[in-house]
Amino acid sequence: MNTDLHAPLGQGRKVKRQRPGVLRTGRVVAGICLVLIGVSSLYTAFRGDGLKREMPPVQDQAAVPPSDTNQNQVPSQSSSAAVPNGMVPSDPRSGANVEQMVTGDGSVVTKYSPRQRDGNGPVLVDASQVGQDPRMAALPNDALLESTPLGRLPIVGPDGRRPMDQYARPWSGAHGTRIAIVVSGLGLSQTGTQRAIQQLPEEVTFAFAASGNSLQRWMQEARRAGHEILLQVPFEPFDYPANDPGPDTLLTSTSAAKNIESLHRAMGEITNYTGIMNYQGGRFLSDPNAMEPVMRDIESAGCCFLTMERRPSPKPRQSQRERRRPTPLLMCSWTSSLM
Q1: Does residue 44 belong to any structural domain of this protein?
Q2: What pLDDT, in 10s, does the model give residues 203-215?
Q3: What pLDDT, in 10s, does the model give residues 284-333?
Q4: Which residues contact 240 (CB under 8 A, 6 or more apart)?
Q5: How many domains does the chain have?
Q6: Could you tell me the residue range of the domain that residue 255 belongs to?
Q7: What 3-state class would DSSP assign to 231?
Q8: Strand pairing of 275-280 and 88-90?
Q9: Quick one: pLDDT band at residue 38, thresholds 50, 70, 90?
Q10: Is residue 74 in some structural domain?
């Protein structure tokens, strides 16, 4: 220690010299780390990770004009492709022009427009595309609807698809004996309709009365729940007018045009149904002259027809044991009108 009192403070102390080798080594290591981090960042930034969406070229953003590649072509049918009954299978879209357009974001939009068919006899239409996406089951297919003064009525689409194909419940694939259960008269009682939709399994078909209330709402809820639906139209019973099925009842005493108008008024109440079901109508169903134009109109709309009729009681000659057996009161028969 310096003992000179006149010397400035700090003078005379021994300065500890730092080792330059250690400092230089630390700086070199830090510099190498910074370089490695920079190189890694640049590699990550410029490396293609496959997550970036490639935008289409400028010339591809415009609508692609119809051509042989994007137009639907009907496959040529040879004589060997004919089925045994002589009818030639046909593409369901053979009556439609199919155009594909690429939008600005790269998605493809498919456009269907009607095209004149070659009217050389009947053809078989492949209806393998049955059913509707459950997420869209409550919404109708606009291509299968026609706006009229009586409402939006079902029609056959330009690609040959029918409402009975579009809104039908797809086959589950189960084999063996199958039973169809239809609950009719829905829409007349709000409480009963709500309980049916909430409690019955989706395999049960619902028939909504054309004179019911809030039919559009109940139809949407039933379709979201997975049910196939029918429209129940009043037909003339034997004891009419003492037994009146409701407004716009189809009568044997009125003209075919009037009955078709009443039918269309009922069909315009809701959408998304596969077909028509009768409410009563014993007299009307037994009259071929009254039924034929109605059935033809239902067929032209691409819908099916479900009829309920009473099974006759056992014959008197049957034994006592046979008469004790339970007999179903209703027998349902599913037809596709005049197909």
Answers
A1: no
A2: 999 999 999 999 9
A3: 999 999 999 999 999 999 999 998 755 444 444 555 444 444 433 333 43
A4: 249, 251, 283
A5: 1
A6: 180-311+327-339
A7: strand
A8: unpaired
A9: confident
A10: no
